[in-house]
User: Fold this.
Amino acid sequence: MMNKLVIIRVDTDARIGTGHVMRCIALAQAWQDQGGDVTFLSCCDSGPLHQRIIEEGFNFVSIEKPHPDPNDLKKTLSILSNSTNTTWIVVDGYHFTPDYQKAIRENGYRLLVIDDMAHLDHYHADILLNQNIHASSLHYSCDKDTVQFLGKEYAMLRREFLKYRNWKRQISEKAKKILATLGGTDSNNVTLKVIRALNMLSNPDIEVKIVVGPSNPHKELLKNAMLHAPCSMLCVEITRSMPELMAWADVAISAGGSTCWEMAFMGLPSLIITLADNQDGIAEGLGKAGAGIDLGWHENISIKQCSQALKEILQNKNKRSSFSEQGQKLVNGKGCQKVIKAMLAGQIKLRRTQGTDCELLWKWANDLEVRKSAFNSENIAWEDHQAWFSDKQNDPDCIQYIALNNYDVPIGQIRFDIKDSVAEIDYSVDKDFRGMGLGKILLKEGVKFFCAEENNPITIRGCVKKGNESSNRIFQGAGFLKVNKKPIDKNDIINTHIIYQLRFFPKKTA
Assistant:
């Protein structure tokens, strides 16, 4: 069991909203599932959210005045310094400036920054995470060693959603069950506009459940408005049964925050209203992907327009079916796993290959992406691999390492085949650990280990298919120089490969 601590620095109030805390709870749950401990440092004005964090088994330390108050960073660093097993600190909030991030990294801590907007001049982080559909279109200025996780594949879902992974939604001919959820605060009271739009439907057969967040200042007004509705309308305050509510509903009308990824995962057709600047790209992206209807900025949509959009989707089974299918294609529920694997990968260590590595190397060699990147894309037979492996193990001019993470899990391999003072490189990363920036680390560490064993000048060379953009970036990022490119064979005018080289000269000893 892992006994490592993650500290999560996140706040919530009427201005910030609750979405930051909720997605951090998802990440904290995934870390906890690996046997780790979690401490939340938070300026949290929501009693129910505070209680939720405690009930999840996480520690909670209160921050009285958040950054830019100088006591925030001082207290955060003090807590970090007093912990002997802190592995990572996670920061989620637009008010955590570059100086705040930089101070954490300069004190020797690994930092994961969760962001939606690319609004800062620069980001200081080991990992920068934006889980939104439009993330790859944003430009982030980051430290050179920052690994960027950008896109919906990193959408983080809480445990209660994951039990619905194989659930299939049934699409009714005419939808009658509507879920409305406009965020944890809804300071502009867009929920009231939605209630009025629902009332305009004048349909006594519909059932409506309206989620009113823990920090919503309009609760009593909303409850009173629901009493006079022409249909069944129920107020639901903070709840852990959001997956059940989404499974119950035929249609949702929602704010454009993290809830959108939960609805997509649940295949819930949705109408999305943008309540804040950071939601605009989410709503637009889901609309373009055919996974929902982007109603636009809350001030620009009238009650009548909202009511008409609801009426149309309630009556259109084909559109609801398409939205449901496209949404579930977007979010697979594995976002937290990807992030946690990257956090646990840490600094890799290398060891020489052993006889017991034969089958592992065979599986890696026959991985679909590895074969696509290879000059010979045919699968390798087990008997052929065994013979090859035996030859390599007995060849003094072949140096091969297995890369392990901090928990001794094999994550990749790198091999150097030496001939005439040239060492040809072959490397690969296990499919479960790709997209984490480990390729460049593996290449750099492999070269360093290899050179430490060399006593003579040598040229280290890598050959990469022109279309293999990932490997081309990795070689360039590891300091290799592009020296040539040519067809793989004289008849191949498409699959050109690029040659990268690095010259090594051993230090002279006295």
Summary: The longest helix spans residues 19-33.
